[in-house]
Amino acid sequence: MVIDGHCDVLYQLWKNPEWSFNDQEELRVNYNRWINNDVKVQCFAIFVPPDVPEDLQFHSALKMVDIFYEKILKPYPNIKMVKSREDIDNLKDDEKGAMLTLEGLHPIGHDIIKLKTLLHLGVKAAGLTWNNGNAVSDGIGEVRGAGLSKFGKQVVDVLNTYEVLTDVSHLSYKGFWEVMDEAYYPIASHSNSFKVCAHRRNLDNKQIKALISRNAFMGVTFVPEFLTGANQATTKDVIDHIEKILTLGGENIVGLGSDFDGTDGIVEGLENYSDYNSFIQELKGRFSADFVQKISHENFLKVLPK
Fold first, then answer.
1. CDD domains given for it (predicted)?
2. Burial class (CB in 10 A: 0-12, 13-18, 19+), 229
3. Which of 26, 189, 211, 259 is the most exposed place for a label (fewest CB within 10 A)?
């Protein structure tokens, strides 16, 4: 079993409404590729680009929720929506699980009811920012580098109450530490090691150790820029980041968060979903069977509410 903590298929289908999830070649994650690999659960992120006008951002988020239900779930009876560990445990052998997540809270503005609406619609993990700043916190690309606002702390309280994962990927450095203090269920859905690749989106050793101390989850991502600092990378580079997290004591937090369909760069040997099985075999050649189980799914499962 494989659980992938992040992809941007919903964004691509929103941007290209004529596309089909079934077999669209341009989609690195599509139904035909999914049904033929060992990925059991895929997290589908709602990502509204920040250039969408403010008054249309929440509507765009709702449109992506609609795409999730109408294009991912409805046509395929063997794809089940999952919201908990129990839902995943109950998947039959021929079934796949789809989890709805949110990348950046800029679509809710200052309105906590908009957040609750998205949670009622099934969002089970929420990234507080993208790279930009919003009413909740600054992102890692915001020069100001501010942490959680008063409203941001209210948001984290709501996520705690609803047992929703609080995602620190893309968050400012100060915001990261404040989430560590405030969130009951912190994760980094798609982030790599800053020590291996000094990209602003990656987490330094101190941050990774903080996630370890919280028994959280950290999904190593397949974005070449975050792996090597360039637009080229190989599966060995992905493994280098996994090994670095392992050396810090991260055996029980490290997992996978591909970011397929959210980036133009391609990792050699991990071009799309079709390569996932061979990558898992490569991991099995490098690590123990027990550790590969943790990387592939167990470390993600343990952070979910029962």
1. rDP_like
2. middle
3. 26
Q: Is the pLDDT confidence value at 60 over 80?
A: yes
Residue 306 within a domain: no
Instruction: Give me 228's structure tokens.
Output: 């090597």
Report the half-sphere exposure of 92 (CA within 13 A, side-chain side). 6
Could you list the beta-strand ranges (E) of the chain. Answer: 2-4, 39-46, 79-81, 96-103, 123-127, 165-167, 186-187, 218-220, 232-234, 254-256, 266-268
Task: Judge residue 74's burial from the number of C-beta atoms within 10 Å of its C-beta, 0-12 exposed, 13-18 middle, 19 or more buried.
Answer: exposed
* Two tokens, residue 77: 């009876």
Whole-angstrom Cα Rg for the chain: 18
CA distances from 119 to 66, 91, 96 (A): 14, 22, 21
pLDDT tens digits for range 74-89: 999 999 999 999 999 9
pLDDT value of position 306: 73
68 close to 10: Cβ distance less than 8 angstroms: yes
Q: How many angstroms separate the Cα of 164 from the Cα of each of 40, 261, 273? A: 20, 24, 27
Closest by Cα among 113, 294, 129, 132 to 217: 294
Q: Which domain holds residue 102?
A: 2-301
Which pLDDT score is estimated for 305? 83
Q: Is residue 160 part of a domain?
A: yes
First to last CA, the chain: 18
Q: Specify the CATH number for the domain of residue 156.
A: 3.20.20.140
Structure tokens at 50: 């920040």
pLDDT at 143 over 90: yes
Amino acid at 13: L
DSSP for residue 238: H
Q: Which among 202, 184, 200, 186 has a CA at the least distance from the CA of 240? A: 202
Q: How many angstroms from the chain centroid is the CA of residue 185?
A: 14
Contacts of 43 (CB under 8 A, 6+ apart): 3, 4, 5, 6, 7, 99, 100, 101, 125, 189, 257
Q: Vertex 89, ends 86 and 94: CA angle to 5°?
A: 135
Asked if residue 270 is part of any domain, the answer here is yes
Average pLDDT, the chain: 97
